[in-house]
Structures
1.
Amino acid sequence: DSERLKDIFADSYHIGVAVNARQVNSSDEKVNTLIAEHFNSLSPENGLKWERVHPELNRYDFRFGDEYVALGEKIGAFTIGHCLVWHQQTPRWVFQDENNEPLSKDALISRMEEHIEAVAGRYKGKIHGWDVVNEAFNEDGSFRESNWYKVAGKDFMKAAFRKAHEVDPEAELYYNDYNVWNAAKRKGILDFAKEMVAEGIQVDAIGMQGHYQLDTPTLEQIEQGIIDIHEAGFKVMVTELDVDVLPRPRRAVGADLNMNFANSDEYNPYKDGITAEGEAKLAARYAEIFEIYEKHKDKITRVTFWGLGDGNSWLNNFPVRGRTNYPLLFDRNLEPKTEVIEKI
Ligand code: XIL
């Protein structure tokens, strides 16, 4: 029996897991036990994204969310909301009026505020921290030309944080992104987050998603990210940790995202199971990453894994479809990878 993750890191940070719609209300005792024993924070993998929770104008679907917060209460978890404003998994109608014409800035911001009011309002006191805005920056530190930005400029972000705070003043509020280890991107994020704080807007933490590979980013890049976020005055959260063990298809190959890579020997080398060598690389990678996290545990308040077991991971279908990936600490049978866990 391997030790419980949340006990291993009890003196350091919350240990979280992203859960899907089956897992929030599972009849599988193994799933329920694993979640309750190992994790003291939860994230909703997809169920609170705009397309799920607010699929049509004036129609909200809170079935997932209600089960999700109930599970969080049951296991006493620090329960995260993900995410209020993002350019992906957001329906097209959000940006359009009844004639399918683009909304004005004011109308778009009102619609966004209404969404935040409905979703964050419903879970007031039950969701303890929100990813308010997700992935709004480019790699060079400029704002992403999303539908939000194109219509509302930077103000969409300020309005989102303001509204979230107004709706639930007790909730922590986060800005979340990938590749925060990239210095240029991070500078753009932190400069803007500081600008918001200077204007009296509450921003508690910067989420570093942590979708890592075996060799990218470097440990120095991860560490500098943690240090810079802390120095800018924010808590650090690792919000979506996983380690892709498969070779990254080159751009040219990845271009056809609909192609199924299940039969590719080159890009899906562990279709029949990961080799001992492969698992040793995963263990070494997790060990070195957690060594950095532990070194900076005074700055980090949460580390969340993006999925429970390997079979649940989005990395089986990203960046190309149909592969067999091994990015997490529990395998496809939801058995702990004891060799990996022992080393972290
Ligand atoms: C992913 C989910 O894991 C997938 O199931 C879904 O198909 C796409 O989104 N950054 C984020 C997460 O902030 O919401 C994404 O989750 C992974 C990348």
2.
Amino acid sequence: AHEAAFATLSRVGIVPVVVVDDPARSSDLADALVAGGLPIAEITFRTPGAEAALRTFADRPDMLAGAGTVLTADQVDLAAEAGARFIVSPGFSTAVVRRAQELGLPVLPGVASASDLQAAVAEGIERVKLFPANRLGGPDMIASLSEPFPEMGFLPSGGVGPGNAAAYLAQPSVFALGGSWMVRRDLVAAGDMAAVARLSAEAVALVASLRA
Ligand code: 3PG
């Protein structure tokens, strides 16, 4: 299950970070992402509707739905119960990592430093989310961190978008880009799913062209 989920994240190369304001929009939002070629979503536990949205996404066979902003072991349980196929946290939490591992769920812990990476390695982690990537130093920081941690895979997120996708993907250790630019809250709130689908398709095309 681990390698299958990570293989899908790597193949698609983009992890949309979704903040749900209205779970009733979930089904349309999932349709738009799939139509745009992005059958992946990190549903963040930042809003009251997150769990319901995660259920809607996770019920779909055409969608790899994970939980993001998972801060506690209890939230790992909630996410698993709602059908999450992977777990993402913004920072490094041993408790979150261990609970996910106990449940057999792939986990992408957040890191912001070499210390966090050491803690991740100690838990057997091979892939991490670098957050907030742009604030921390962007692609150059990943290059620096890859010197002592050459085997680590990075998912940069936070300020990542079409303008810097090339620089991030130029780092061999970057296996996918995370971000909200194709699922902007204002677009989703306005029900502009055509824009979500278009921005998703553009993101997919951009990553494909940069990897070619
Ligand atoms: C995340 O949790 O990865 C970020 O909130 C996404 O950041 P962005 O909104 O700058 O893409």
